[in-house]
Amino acid sequence: MAFIEFQDVRKVYHMGSVDVTAVDGMTFSVEKGELCVIVGPSGAGKTTVLNMLGGMDKPTSGVIRLGDRVVSDMDDRQLTYYRRLDIGFVFQFYNLVQNLTAVENVELAAQICPDPLPAAEVLERVGLGHRLDNFPAQLSGGEQQRVAIARAIAKNPQLLLCDEPTGALDYQTGKQILELLQDTCHETGQPVCIVTHNLAFTQIADRVIHVREGRASKIEVNSHPASAA
Ligand code: ADP
Ligand code: ADP
Predict the structure, then answer these.
(1) Whose CA is nearest to atom 24 of ligand 1?
(2) Which residues are in the ABC transporter domain (predicted)?
C-alpha cells in the first residue's frame, strides 16, 4: 500500500438547498519521499483535497489513509491531534506570528510535537542561520516563507502540505522555495504535497495529479527526478 491513499473520495458542501460537489470520486496515491504536485484550474477542488488530507475537512464518502492511519475515520478530537502533530502546513501568506522572532516562531509550532527538530538547526537548513533573531517584518517575502517551511519541518511531521506556497513571491524567489521543498522531501523522506494552479510546478514533481471538476483527470509519475541533476 502507498503511504498516502485517496480512494473514491467525495466532498459535497450543502449550501442551503444547493449541493456543491467539490470533489467527485478522487482516487490517487503518493509514496514516501515523493514530491507531489496537485495542479488544476481555480475551482477544480484542489484546496478541498488538501484540507481533507490535512484533517481540516472531512470527506462525505470514500477512504483517506496516511501510513497505517485511516484519516477519513477520525473523529473531531483525533483530527485536532492529527493536524497539530502529524502535518506541517505551509500557506501562501506565511502566517507567522509578528511579535515573535524567526526562531521563536519555529519553536512555538514544534513544542507540542513529540519529536521536534531543533529550531535553530532547521532554520540553518533552510538558509536562515543568520536570521534567527529577526522578526517577520524584518524579513523579505522569500525569507518569511523559509521560516514558515522551517516551522513545518521542525514539527517533524508525517507529511508537509503546501497551498500555493509561492503564490506571493516573484518567479526567482518562488523557484528557490520550490527547490527547498524538493530538497527537504528527498533528504528527509517526508512526502510533500503542493497545491497550485501553476503548471510550471509540475517540472520539479515526482508525481503530478491533474485535477478537473473534482476528479484526478491525469496522473504523471516522473521516475528519477532526484538523480536528474
Ligand atoms: P480549488 O482549490 O481548485 O480552487 P476548491 O477546492 O477551493 O478548488 O473548490 C472546489 C469547489 O468547491 C468550488 O466550486 C468551490 O466553490 C466549492 N467549495 C469549496 N469550499 C467550499 C465551502 N466551504 N462551502 C461551499 N463550497 C465550497
Ligand atoms: P487547532 O486550533 O485545533 O489546533 P487548527 O486547524 O486551527 O486546529 O490548526 C491546526 C494546525 O493547522 C495548526 O498547527 C496550524 O499550523 C495549522 N493551520 C491550519 N490553518 C491555518 C492557517 N490558516 N494559518 C496557519 N496555520 C494553520
Answers:
(1) 13
(2) 4-229
